[in-house]
Amino acid sequence: DGYAIIRGLFAADEIERIAAATDQVYAEGASHGRSFRHGNLFYNVAAQADGEPFVRMAQWPSYHQPILNRVRLDLRIARLLEPLIGPHLKQIINQVHWKAPGSVGDFAWHQDSRSRRPAAAYRNLATAYVQTGLAVDPHTPESGCMRFIPGSHLRGDLGMDCSKKALGA
What we know:
- By secondary structure, the protein is of the alpha+beta class.
- It has a 4-stranded antiparallel β-sheet, with helices on one face.
- The protein is globular, with a radius of gyration of 17 Å.
- It contains 3 helices and 4 strands; from the N terminus they run αβββααβ.
């Protein structure tokens, strides 16, 4: 179908440490009060209705967050991926995403592969790369969980309208 859910890859105590690390990254992003970039490290920060900053995502927080760096390099993930794409892996992006309580539709429908360059390296979405995600908090329809379109990886580039950003305004 184009996706798999692997439960229990990380133990509950590991998830607690990962959650604490993401809380630290969130606080760091919020402390900027606005979106902020330093090299590849990027915080997408929006203002809430009360004016307080809300961190939507952090890109490459693992550059300076040791726990998140260990997670991205964890051999358990590599062992899961090896039968799919081989032993020579290159991580092309590393992100943490947060959703505001009660938010729905923060992300526009999109294909991440539209942003990958060179395009020739991602020409076959079924075999060119694998995208992974780690749910730190419960993913439910009420919390705005990630949604998948079964089999969509076989349809290639859908030529979706990319004039709007996938992550809100």
